[in-house]
Amino acid sequence: MLSEVVTVCSQTTMKAIIQRVTKATVTVGEEQISSVGRGLCVLLGISVEDTQRDVDYIVRKILNLRLFEDDSGRAWTKSVMDRDFEVLCVSQFTLQCILKGNKPDFHSAMPAELAQPFYNSFLENMRSSYKPELIKDGKFGAYMQVHIQNDGPVTIELTSPTGPADPKQLSKQEKQQQRKEKTRSKGPSELTRDKGNLRSRQDPNASSGAEGDVSSEREP
């Protein structure tokens, strides 16, 4: 009885399995549909409750996850966009599986007739947010063979938030998250300059750093 209540009350979300790869390909039958070099392979599971908000969140996370090293070899510092790497996206409804005993149930997955245009909008969002020629795709609804050469291995499981339904609160949360990601992407010199500007605005008499120079920027 308890398990039935949990199943009914649980909220489904968009799910993505993100793998850092050195190479990934999709074939249907004997035909190779897509191929990417170093970058990401994304398996995406769309639920019946997903909206544009889920798409926006997942797309932003995929493109900004810091899964790569920088030019000096420091790990976890660069995103796929920072490195101009490719992304292979594959629709995978089985990520929405709910087990009933040992039998998989896929009722929480969005029906194919709705999922296909929804998935296409996800791809459009990815391409408009990045370089469209670097976003590759499998073949929706086809029986695909996905060959993944996982780099690391590195695999990240991502789900869209189930947070409050209030639009104002959702907008506030999204802006806060975007500010955090923008701050992380700044280098040390940029952060130091921003802090200096903030101190100058708060204290009109604070020195700007130049000899004998006093900030003239004052609050009205």
Automatic annotation (TrEMBL):
This is D-aminoacyl-tRNA deacylase. InterPro entries: Daa-tRNA_deacyls_DTD (IPR003732), DTD-like_sf (IPR023509). Residues 169-180, 191-202 have a biased composition (Basic and acidic residues). Signal peptide: none annotated. The keyword Protein biosynthesis does not apply. Belongs to the DTD family. PANTHER family: D-AMINOACYL-TRNA DEACYLASE 1, D-TYROSYL-TRNA TYR DEACYLASE. It holds the Pfam family Tyr_Deacylase. One of its GO terms (cellular component) is cytoplasm. Its main location: cytoplasm. It is an enzyme of class 3 (hydrolase).
